[in-house]
Structure to design on (338 residues):
């Protein structure tokens, strides 16, 4: 099936997460061609060579991305912030899927505006949820056990040694510093919080209490539209992971707390933990790969028609969670929160 697909263009594919996304796509679909693109052609070629892929130079500042006029691709994935919107326009002009992972909640108006002006051009997937869905999809899967939800709280820990490359650092600094407030859902109403209200505590998977702050990926929007929860909040701790406190390499952690009425009618507050022992990059790469295979019609249904999508509107949570486990995520499910 994948033999009939044009190459997937990964802009920023020579970075830490982009390279792993290319590898994840090849693991899921060995025959799918992938092209690594970046401003530094030598770096892109080095990464592509290790993975057995092709490489091209690309420049987001140019409307044609600096790509050869005759170049043909089946999808465009962008791992760096596209301040011009040129990659999305490039995909729309060619009628191919576009997937982005770097926007905060306060930034998606740019992508939405380009879609609104060309709604029949191409599938546009906004995949800037935390690690491209690694917290969102488990939360949605766990939520199936509830008849109604009063609250969803997601706490994540990014180890201080696990920032990744320069693009990831730029995204983190922009989202945490450029936005004056963070989106939450409080008593059924969307609310932007800042200052003291945004401060939080994160209880690590080993029980250690750490400082955290409200964070602004797209998860709050996805959870608000995907569940009936009245209160939703997402907090980030940038600290030492439990594994590193044990003297092991860094890991990435997610703690999901759900409070509501189970399908059985019993009221229950539950806490779930998810750890990936290799940090954030493998999960981000997997999330991008799963959204891409769905957009191309290689899993879960036919290729996407033109439209504006979140990953959770096109990928089944149970499938995503199963793939997370296959790719090394460790789940501690159903623990009661004390």
């Amino acid at each position: 099936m994948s033999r009939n697909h044009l190459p997937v263009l990964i802009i920023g594919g020579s970075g830490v997460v982009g390279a792993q996304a290319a590898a994840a796509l090849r693991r899921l679909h060995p025959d799918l061609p992938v092209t690594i693109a970046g401003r530094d052609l030598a770096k892109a070629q080095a990464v592509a060579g290790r993975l057995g892929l092709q490489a091209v130079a690309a420049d987001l500042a140019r409307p044609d991305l600096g790509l050869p006029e005759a170049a043909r691709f089946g999808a465009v994935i962008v791992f760096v912030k596209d301040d011009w919107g040129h990659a999305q326009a490039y995909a729309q002009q060619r009628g191919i899927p576009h997937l982005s992972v770097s926007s905060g909640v306060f930034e998606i108006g740019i992508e939405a505006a380009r879609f609104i002006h060309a709604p029949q051009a191409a599938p546009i997937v906004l995949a800037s949820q935390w690690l491209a869905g690694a917290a969102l999809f488990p939360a949605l899967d766990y939520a199936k056990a509830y008849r109604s939800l009063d609250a969803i709280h997601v706490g994540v820990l990014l180890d201080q040694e696990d920032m990744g490359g320069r693009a990831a650092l730029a995204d983190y600094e922009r989202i945490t510093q450029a936005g004056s407030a963070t989106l939450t859902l409080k008593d059924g109403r969307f609310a932007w919080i800042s200052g003291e209200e945004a401060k939080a505590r994160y209880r690590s998977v080993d029980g250690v209490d750490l400082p955290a702050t409200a964070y602004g990926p797209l998860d709050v929007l996805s959870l608000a539209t995907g569940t009936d929860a009245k209160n939703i909040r997402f907090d980030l701790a940038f600290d030492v992971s439990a594994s590193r406190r044990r003297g092991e390499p860094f890991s990435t952690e997610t703690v999901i707390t759900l409070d509501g009425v189970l399908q059985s009618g019993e009221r229950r507050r539950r806490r779930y933990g998810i750890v990936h022992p290799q940090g954030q990059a493998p999960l981000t790469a997997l999330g991008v790969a799963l959204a891409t295979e769905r957009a191309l019609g290689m899993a879960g249904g036919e290729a996407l028609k033109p439209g504006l999508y979140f990953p959770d509107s096109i990928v089944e949570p149970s499938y995503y969670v199963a793939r997370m486990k296959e790719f090394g995520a460790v789940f501690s499910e159903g623990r009661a929160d004390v």
Remarks:
- The chain has two domains: 2-130+283-315, 133-279+319-336.
- The first strand starts at residue 8 and ends at 11.
- The chain has a mean pLDDT of 94.
- The radius of gyration is 19 Å.
